Amino acid sequence: MDSTTFSPSTTPEIDSVEALLDFIDSHPMGPENWIDFGAVDIEETLFDPTEWLIHPDPNEKVRAPKLYEFLVLLLNNERYSAYASWIDKEEGVFEIHNPAQVVKLWEKVKSRKAKQKMNFDTFSRGIRMYYAKGDMIPTYTRYTYRFASTK
DNA sequence: TAGTAGGAACCAG
DNA sequence: CTGGTTCCTACTA
């Protein structure tokens, strides 16, 4: 509505996807206003919560990404090319260059109430769950994964 | 030693 | 029930 309501100076601390979703819940607004939140510096990387929102269609509620959605957003964001990048985008093949940072990013995007610290073992198990569903194909190669469909 | 695949129990939403 | 998360065994570089 009133765009001044969403200016960075008048919004609370929004440094996670969870905080952003909470704010959007209490302040109805469209994607055009998401840009107004600014970004925070997290471990030498600019983290912008609005980059990690999923909004399939206007009817569906805005939400945090699922794991495969998170991977696609990460891969298609040039700012994170040092974290992970496509090897063959047409074939859906990609490589994770900085596993530790990718896992930290995933934790931040999911805003888990960490019982334990997530590590690459648990993160990669999440990816491997997609093999059985047919959404991903094993590559048997270090830090290398493949989407079954480029869709 | 550190990654990969995948079974099984578990759990928050 | 979904979408992971936690834990673990087996295999390979």
TrEMBL record:
Any Pfam family hit: Ets
GO biological process terms, semicolon-separated: cell differentiation
ETS domain: residues covered: 65-148
Cellular-component GO terms for this entry: nucleus
Swiss-Prot/TrEMBL keywords: DNA-binding, Nucleus
GO molecular function annotations of the record: DNA-binding transcription factor activity, RNA polymerase II-specific; sequence-specific DNA binding
InterPro entries: Ets_dom, ETS_fam, WH-like_DNA-bd_sf, WH_DNA-bd_sf
Predominant subcellular localization, coarse grouping: nucleus
Compartment list: Nucleus
Family: Belongs to the ETS family.
PANTHER family, per the entry: ETS, ETS DOMAIN-CONTAINING PROTEIN
Protein name as catalogued: ETS domain-containing protein
Organism whose genome encodes this protein: Adineta ricciae
